[in-house]
């Protein structure tokens, strides 16, 4: 689709000036060339300083958005013309004024980076016949100025002592470029450090720099000055420093629980030094608010304490908005004081969601009912209670002899509670405050009736979660996670019939028990505050990193050893059921670099390994890795690739066998804005999975260091995405390039066949 759109855009290019007025020009092309002997200035960094850029180009040449706009007629009263224009982009009309302004902005950008002698020349090339204009900016950077020395003039002795004590943290040092952006960053860092030492009224505007340059010299002698507050003489030798920039302490802390409400406040409760002002509804206990508050009466003002309070209060699901205001409370006993007002508004306390669905499988009718109940303020402590219930039923027709059930039935339930703090016995309150985690407890139960068997799956979990205020860092610690599978009833010899010699398939249906602990870390710099920020094109550089690890069965194995338990069929069992023992680790890193003109290049690398040991020969099926699919090697469908050279074409249970203990994936993707909500992409993926041991039912799947690189599958393809701001729909078409499977075409890229090599994927969100 992207290719056909580009061809259409090329065909329309002859009409590119359809909506350009007479005696004016379409801005067809803009180039920036830089002559910089230092190699520190690149043209790609300067594009954002242009006040006028040509219409967006797809794949570097096709102005698809302009072509779409030009499909409209001149009569804007017609809905079709207005609709097409909204999809496209109007022609950019060349403006001499904006061109001159761009030249000034380019020069100022270089001056701010220390290139004081930079010059910018503009060359315009008009094509009157085609009504198009090309603009070229030629930049001579010249020699930059360097900082030779830094002096400090700080009349406030207390601030001088604090600033110079942190000199090792300074980012500005002699030998650096005389970059005004670096100077401003240094002002911000010093201001933040002082605001964490009691200087509530201090801002970076009090910090100024003076530059002294010698004639015919590129060296700059820099002097940093911290001015006194407005209205106080700049030089006060011998004066008390607190009269220049005073420090502040907290006098009182007030929680206003119904801040936006116009109703009169009805009650004030004092608890451990804080004042809680209630409206008509005392919906949260003072103890909960006090535990989440890091602003304490008598403490010196610290901006970090305010940030920690914001972060902690955001864990309370009953709160909808949080706003903290500091108001000066006057001077007493030689000290400036502040009152902290923490303004809160309440969220909905309870909610119920009902889901209904109907099914028809070859004439067999069925239905499903789901009910979810949420309570965000259990016990007025903002403890989140969730209860989920679901029932599915489907009738069966035909010959049911020899089966134990005449229907498909499933009953599922999950009950969980989230405590907005770290919960564990015998720990101090101060420790729980420092940890800043929420605690989740959950139990689940699933009862399944199938024609061949009845199965029960039960689980329980105790975990801790940490989430940064910006949501750019998340951590999860699974203290204990228990999963239990039990088949109380099945047809005669059911297991042996479906899997006479396949340990993986047998394990999926046999009784088994997993007790695991794990840790997951995720970090990104991606902004998600708004729809615009969510778009990957809105940031020049986006990365995400995820690492996870888990272990299972070690405690049970140690208990079995210590207690002298006898092995049954070569393994230890708990209540007659074998428990799993393994270790597993995963790491995944992706990076997206925005290029000029709404183009992005993204890369991803991922690796995972799981090792069964002790009481297990095979990893549990649900813990094994799989390859292919919309987020894997996209030339293959999900669970149709690997492990290694394994060929599953003639195996009816190939989805069971196509899993492994080692995973490796590489991906590269070039993304481009097309028009309206449409984005295009071309991509290449490589990777596979392997097994740790040589399993009989997975021939060719074992990892061997000298051979694994030959078994890396590769694919390529193109995709269309629809970005609706709050979610993104993705349509990708992958083609096999290298297929490591035995008895199959090794290099399908040389002899491609659509039915054999093409795989279509539909998904939500970017693949990485």
Secondary structure blueprint with pairings:
Layout: H1 2-12, E1 26-35, H2 43-46, H3 64-69, H4 79-87, H5 96-112, E2 119-127, E3 132-140, E4 146-153, H6 157-165, H7 180-195, E5 207-213, E6 219-226, E7 248-256, E8 267-271, E9 274-278, H8 286-291, H9 303-313, E10 319-332, E11 335-346, E12 350-361, E13 364-378, E14 383-395, E15 407-419, H10 429-435, E16 438-449, E17 453-467, E18 473-490, H11 494-498, H12 503-509, E19 512-524, H13 531-534, E20 541-552, H14 554-562, E21 573-574, E22 577-578, E23 582-595, E24 599-612, H15 654-657, E25 662-675, E26 678-690, E27 713-723, E28 728-738, H16 754-757, E29 758-764
Parallel strand pairs: 1-3, 4-6, 7-9, 7-11
Antiparallel strand pairs: 2-3, 5-6, 8-9, 10-11, 12-13, 13-14, 14-15, 15-16, 16-17, 17-18, 18-19, 19-20, 20-23, 21-22, 23-24, 24-25, 25-26, 26-27, 27-28, 28-29
């Amino acid at each position: 689709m992207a290719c056909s759109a580009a061809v259409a855009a090329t065909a329309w290019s002859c009409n590119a000036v359809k909506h350009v007025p007479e005696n004016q020009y379409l801005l067809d092309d803009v180039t920036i060339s830089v002559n910089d002997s230092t190699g520190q200035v690149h043209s790609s960094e300067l594009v954002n300083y242009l006040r006028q850029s040509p219409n967006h180009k797809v794949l570097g040449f096709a102005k698809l958005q302009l072509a779409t706009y030009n499909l409209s007629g001149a009569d804007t009263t017609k809905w079709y013309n207005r609709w097409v224009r909204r999809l496209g982009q109007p022609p950019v009309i060349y403006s001499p004024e904006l061109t001159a302004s761009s030249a000034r902005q380019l020069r100022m950008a270089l001056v701010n980076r220390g290139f004081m002698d930079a010059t910018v020349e503009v060359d315009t090339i008009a094509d009157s016949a085609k009504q198009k204009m090309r603009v070229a900016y030629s930049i001579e950077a010249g020699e930059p100025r360097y900082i030779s020395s830094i002096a400090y003039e700080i009349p406030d002795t207390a601030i001088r002592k604090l600033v110079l004590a942190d000199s090792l943290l300074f980012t500005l040092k002699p030998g650096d470029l005389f970059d005004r952006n670096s100077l401003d960053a240094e002002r911000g860092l010093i201001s933040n450090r002082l605001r964490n030492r009691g200087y509530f009224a201090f801002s970076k505007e009090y910090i100024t720099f003076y530059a002294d340059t010698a004639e015919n010299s590129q060296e700059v002698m820099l002097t940093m000055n911290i001015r006194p507050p407005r209205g106080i003489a700049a030089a006060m030798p011998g004066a008390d420093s607190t009269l220049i920039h005073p420090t502040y302490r907290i006098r009182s802390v007030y929680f206003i629980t119904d801040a936006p409400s116009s109703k009169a406040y009805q009650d004030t409760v004092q608890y451990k030094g804080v004042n809680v002002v209630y409206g008509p509804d005392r919906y949260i206990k003072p103890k909960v608010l006090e535990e989440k508050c890091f602003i304490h009466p008598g403490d010196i003002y610290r901006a970090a304490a305010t940030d920690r309070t914001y972060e902690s209060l955001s864990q309370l699901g009953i709160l909808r908005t949080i706003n903290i205001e500091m108001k000066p409370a006057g001077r007493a006993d030689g000290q400036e004081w502040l009152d902290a007002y923490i303004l809160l508004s309440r969220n909905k306390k309870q909610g119920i969601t009902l889901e209904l669905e109907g099914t028809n499988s070859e004439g067999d009718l069925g239905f499903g009912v789901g009910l979810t109940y949420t309570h965000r303020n259990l016990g007025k402590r903002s403890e989140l209670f969730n209860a989920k219930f679901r029932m599915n039923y489907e009738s069966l027709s035909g010959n049911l002899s020899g089966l134990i059930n005449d229907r498909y039935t499933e009953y599922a339930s999950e009950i969980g509670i989230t405590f907005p703090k770290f919960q564990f016995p015998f720990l101090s309150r101060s420790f729980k405050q420092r940890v800043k985690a929420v605690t989740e407890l959950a139990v689940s139960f699933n009862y399944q009736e199938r024609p061949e068997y009845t199965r029960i799956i039960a689980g329980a979990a105790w975990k801790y979660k940490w989430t940064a205020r910006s949501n750019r860092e998340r951590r999860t610690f699974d203290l204990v996670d228990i999963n239990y599978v039990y088949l109380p009833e099945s047809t005669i010899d059911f297991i042996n019939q479906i899997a006479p010699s396949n340990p993986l398939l047998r394990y999926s249906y046999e009784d088994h028990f997993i007790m695991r602990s794990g840790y997951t870390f995720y970090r990104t710099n991606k902004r998600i505050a708004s729809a615009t920020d969510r778009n990957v094109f809105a940031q020049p550089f986006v990365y995400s990193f995820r690492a996870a690890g888990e272990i299972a069965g070690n405690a049970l194995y140690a208990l079995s050893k210590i207690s002298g338990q006898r092995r049954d069929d070569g393994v230890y069992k708990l209540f007659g059921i074998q428990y799993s023992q393994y270790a597993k680790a995963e790491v995944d890193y992706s990076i997206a670099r925005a290029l000029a003109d709404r183009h992005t290049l993204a890369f991803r690398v991922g690796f995972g390994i799981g090792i069964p040991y002790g009481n297990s020969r095979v990893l549990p099926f649900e813990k094994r890795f799989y390859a292919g699919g919309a987020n894997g090697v996209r030339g293959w469908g999900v669970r149709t690739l690997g492990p290694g050279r394994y060929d599953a074409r003639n195996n009816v249970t190939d989805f069971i066998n196509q899993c492994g203990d080692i995973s490796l994936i590489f991906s590269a993707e070039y993304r481009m804005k097309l028009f309206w909500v449409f984005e295009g992409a071309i991509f290449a993926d490589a990777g596979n999975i392997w097994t740790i041991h040589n399993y009989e039912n997975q021939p060719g799947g074992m990892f061997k260091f000298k051979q694994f690189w030959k078994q890396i599958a590769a694919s390529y393809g193109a995709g269309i995405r629809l970005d609706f701001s709050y979610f993104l729909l993705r349509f990708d078409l992958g083609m096999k390039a290298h297929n490591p499977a035995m008895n199959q075409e090794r290099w399908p890229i040389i002899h491609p066949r659509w039915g054999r090599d093409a795989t279509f994927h539909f998904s939500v969100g970017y693949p990485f």
